[in-house]
User: Fold this.
Amino acid sequence: MKFIEENCGVFGIYSKTECANDIYQGLDFLQHRGQEYCGISTFDDGVNHITHHGRVTNRFTAEELSNLHGSWGIGHVSLRDRQPMKWQTRFGEISIAFSGNVINSDELMKDMLNRGKSFYKGYDIEIISKIIIEQDDIVSGISALSKKIDGSYSLVVLTRDGVYASRDIFGFRPLILGEDSERYSVSSESRAIQNMDMEIYRDVAPGEIVLISDNGIQTIEQLDSPRSAHCAFEWAYTASIDSIIDGVYVQEARNNLGQSLAQRDIDEGVWLQILSRQSPCRVSVTLSDTTNTLELTIRMCFSITGMPIAVTPRFPRLPAKRWPSANCRFFLTLWVKRLSSATTP
Assistant:
């Protein structure tokens, strides 16, 4: 499934001390967003850069982290390709990483090839990087993405000036800013910021370009945003339940989604139809990783009807030791039986 491969996470930081270990820690808290590749770039008289195939904690060594000198840098975890990507440009050495997808990548790459550009493997990150590098400066390059890219992106760019961060004009992918007395950060999810004992500053606005530097967090440019269009997959699957996106806890959003779906089915008479049957039926639910949570979720849905029920979950072809883990949506076969003498939970 291609949309799964689009899952990835970005992290950036500007610190008063060496930052490689902070980036390593931040990426570890984003590891659920991609486990195939990981990478870190830091800046110290140029870009220091290491990428690996595998998980952050399994691949980066203490020696590698000690050699990634610099007090500002970026990192990335992915299911698809190695990022960040380092470039030699007229702006000096830079490194770029993004989360998202480029729908019109084939069209853009064909145009670039016709203009004499070359590609390593034709990854989306190559296309995004070349669009940025072609412009007169980094900010103009990031702005150009909104005119040329059909798709979504949350972006971090490492330069000698600091870390640029930007979100597409629809705000499709999340991007959150954080801070404490010693550091400024940007992350695909707030959990990386919070678990590093930093405070959430705010979300990057759709179409906003910020610079994180010794001067703190500055808005460099705000592009026109026609409307917000959040990625439903972030709320339902990708993001961790303890993260906050655009001011809302992911777990709270999932509960609200489930309640809205249940209410819709009630309004359409689906639940009454289910409860009147005597035979097994299929029901869709969103759940977490314990049977207690599963039972609570189901009881919440059915209690809305005001009718007593008993539920026995069945996991077809799923061994007990491999029951669904947190963060996943599963469609389960449930046996629903109306109890005439029971009381509503």
Observations:
- The mean pLDDT is 81.
- Residues 2-246 form a domain with the Glutamine Phosphoribosylpyrophosphate, subunit 1, domain 1 fold (CATH 3.60.20.10).
